[in-house]
Amino acid sequence: MRRQDFPILQEEMNGSPLVYLDNAATTQKPALVLHAMDAYYRTSNANVHRAAHGLADEATRAYEGARDRLRHFINAAHREEIIFTSGTTASINLLAATLGSRLGRGDRILITELEHHSNIVPWQLLAERTGASLIAARVTESGDVDLDDFHKKLQPAPAIVAFGHVSNALGSVHPIAGMIRAARDAGAITVIDGAQALAHLPVDVQALGCDFYAGSAHKMYGPTGTGLLYGRRELLEALPPWQGGGEMIEEVTLTGSTWNALPYKFEAGTPNIAGVIGFGAAIEFLEGLSWDDVRSHEQRLISRCVAELRQMPEVRLVGEPAERAGVVSFLVEGSHPHDIGTLLDQQGVAVRTGHHCAMPLMTCLGVPGTVRASFGLYNSDDDVDRFVTALRKSLTFI
């Protein structure tokens, strides 16, 4: 599907055509994104918002156009609800820093055992700072959230409930609409880590009813160092600024300052202008696709991959969730995941190995890590077949 739009996929790796199956770590970039960023630096490089000259106006229109496109993409009610950050990690850290004013000793923050470290550590730091406690809903053997345990831990009501939309380590798609509804009914603020979802599933933040939703451009065919935080406007207006400096102020004196309106209150300093413009181009690229086609294509590749892995007695699948997006994780009996990754790399197949920034999950599953093959919209049946062939060859060396 549109493989020709991605220049890097024409490259070779270790003398073989590249099979890129590390999309959960970062996706490759279509020419549309590369051209948009190059055009900004070549023809309209200027700082945004503050100057009166023509270049600044061109840069500002491109930058703010990306905000409008992203608002439409996730169906936020207002463009002011879209905050640009450096990525999902920064978005969650922003919330952990600013929501602290609402927490105190005895309050509870609920996450799940499936979370990426970026949706664990910021809340740990917040709990240490405020005296709150951090608790986690369990994971089932199949790799899904234990919903009975999740609902049980909503009483007494946590102040904040934060969980991922899709697990980066196992690909588990969580039933977040119901989880959000239950958390909000309990009186909690809901924070969704959408880093692994936005390139695989349609997201409608109004339909979901979440308070906050975070994502990263580089996992949705855009540039690194750029991300988003969606927040309901009334909540964002009530939160204090995250960082101080230029752009986020209305007026500054030596005795005090007042803050700019949303979204700029949370966008201190010169932003990653080229990155945001590239993000807008990535959204344009995704909007040109059918979600039904993307989902069916991906599911077909995953099913093909899982079926082949089941035929190898040395291979054990790790996590078989009820619904999966993008990821297949496995182990090879008697081999360390890194060794399998190295053998695959020598044959031009790029996968990820290790704990995938989900060490608590690996502990719960009783494994040191996994080999993770993760799929994007440009992957093909041939990629799956070459991965399987390379894995079978790797097994002869162990």
Describe the structure.
The protein has 398 residues and is α/β, with parallel strands linked by helices. It has 2 domains: 3-21 and 290-395, Aspartate Aminotransferase, domain 1; 33-287, 3-Layer(aba) Sandwich (Aspartate Aminotransferase, domain 2), CATH 3.40.640.10. The chain has 13 helices and 17 strands. It has helices at 31-43, 54-74, 88-98, 121-130, 147-152, 176-185, 205-208, 233-238, 273-287, 291-310, 337-345, 359-365, 381-395; strands at residues 12-13, 16-17, 19-20, 82-85, 108-112, 133-137, 160-164, 189-193, 212-216, 227-231, 249-253, 256-259, 315-317, 327-332, 349-350, 352-354, 370-374. The strands form 5 sheets. Strands 4-10-9-8-7-5-6 form a 7-stranded mixed β-sheet, sandwiched between helices. A 4-stranded antiparallel β-sheet has the order 13-14-17-16, with helices on one face. A two-stranded antiparallel ribbon has the order 1-2. Strand 11 (249-253) and strand 12 form a beta hairpin. Helix 1 packs antiparallel against helix 9, helix 3 (88-98) packs parallel to helix 4 (121-130) and helix 10 (291-310) runs parallel beside helix 13. It is globular. It starts with 11 loop residues before the first strand and ends with a helix.
How would you summarize this macromolecular structure in one to three sentences?
The protein is α/β, with parallel strands linked by helices and about 400 residues long. It contains 13 helices and 17 strands. The chain folds into two domains: about 120 residues, Aspartate Aminotransferase, domain 1 (Alpha-Beta Complex), CATH 3.90.1150.10; about 260 residues, Aspartate Aminotransferase, domain 2 (3-Layer(aba) Sandwich), CATH 3.40.640.10.
